[in-house]
Amino acid sequence: xxxxxxxxxxxxxxxxxxxxVNRKQEEISKAGYALWGYGGNFCHxxxxxxxxxxxxxxxxxxxxxxxxxxxxxxxxxAHKSSISSVNxxxxxxxxxxxxxxxxxxxxxxxxLTLCNFDIAxxxxxxxxxxxxxxxxxxxxxxxxxxxxxIHNGNVIESSAKKVKITLLAEVITPFAxxxxx
Length: 181
Known about the structure:
Strand content: 35-45%
Helix content: 10-25%
Oligomer: single chain
Largest sheet: 9 strands, mixed
Mean pLDDT: 93
Low-confidence stretches: none
Distance between the termini: 34 Å
Number of helices: 3
Structural class: alpha+beta
């Protein structure tokens, strides 16, 4: 995988991981895609995800969402988003078969699969923004739990900074959206 959005995930909105994965796979089956909700200050749709993804696609390459499980404290029930926007200004209804719970942003994904493999964060560098080029193992720390990243050509055989990827999906156009009730 040359181009990824690395993201940590966990239980959310009172729903187990198994339930979230099953629901997202069903959404993809019905609508052809799902929206993977997220929040925080990293991977903003307009300033990071969309320009990064557009560059990846312009080069004829694919972008993957590579996720590692983390302990999450976001287990409270949350509102369901009913509208989304590519630009934060023009809003449209979210397909009725898709649920986005308690998130202000969402990635547009397909081909969500359970997996079990390791990646060395040192093999990836931040792909956009003021930290572009910084190794992912130095960037993903403390509250930083997601990033647009490019494989930097390094191949690390043994690493203390390997993370287990347990969910993988392809990120598709329009790549990332804003969501709200």
